[in-house]
Amino acid sequence: MLNEILLVTYVSYIVMLEYRNKVWAYEYMAFARRVGELWEPFCKLPFEFPVKKLKLIEAPDFQKVQEGIKKKTLEHIAALSITNDEKRMLNYYYAIPWELVDSGEIKLKLDLHFEQNGNHYNCDFKSGFSSNEKGNTNRLLLVGSIYQSLGQNEENILFVRQEEEQNNHYLQTLKNSPYWSCYCASDCYSKIAEFTGFNLRTWLDNNVDWKNDISSEFRRHLEDNELIGYLTW
């Protein structure tokens, strides 16, 4: 069934890209964004129809996570062998950063959340990292740090379509942080196979040939505008 779903999905992608380009020719930003929008759900299909046992789960609610952290910390302060005035000062200063956090809503939802062998995996898919990724990188660092604070059974994984050297320093920032495990290109597909039991890399090699499956007109447009590389899956 997964094989058939992947085939239908791939064909639908070709049709969508072809006819969008006929109506409104793709330029760099629009095509890069669109490929990312298509690649992510395609890679998620083996998780939705897995060979190995895993369970898709929902992201935790930040407000509940926040309440849990506050409760434990305030209980710890209350149990300290210090004066009541010192406890009041600690509570006062502890509340300040939370007021800053509450000024903007934090969403813990990523592209994919699943449970396997007692561990929770929080995953984000990126087609590639370019010059405009600073805001997204900072958000992923913040969200990754929150998940890490929840316990040792939380693991954050970043799947990247492009080869590592094709991405800029924002990917390295995430890779070198203590919060994210990053997998690019072939390593990405190997990790997906490890979790799901389905080798998406082999399936792509046997079934997908973007350059020859799209029309010659669309291929020329992508080549003339140096966009064909985005169809390297």
Fold and architecture overview:
The protein has 233 residues and is an alpha/beta fold. The longest helix is centred in the N-terminal third of the chain and has 22 residues. A five-stranded mixed β-sheet has the order 1-2-3-4-5. It has two domains: 183 residues, Trna Endonuclease, Chain: A, domain 1 (3-Layer(aba) Sandwich); 41 residues. Helix 1 runs antiparallel to helix 2 and helix 5 packs parallel to helix 6. The chain contains ten helices and five strands.
Secondary structure elements and pairings:
Blueprint: H1 2-23, H2 28-48, E1 55-56, H3 62-79, H4 84-102, E2 112-116, E3 119-126, H5 134-149, E4 154-160, H6 169-175, E5 181-184, H7 185-196, H8 200-207, H9 210-213, H10 216-224
Parallel strand pairs: 3-4, 4-5
Antiparallel strand pairs: 1-2, 2-3
Helix pairs in contact: 1-2, 5-6
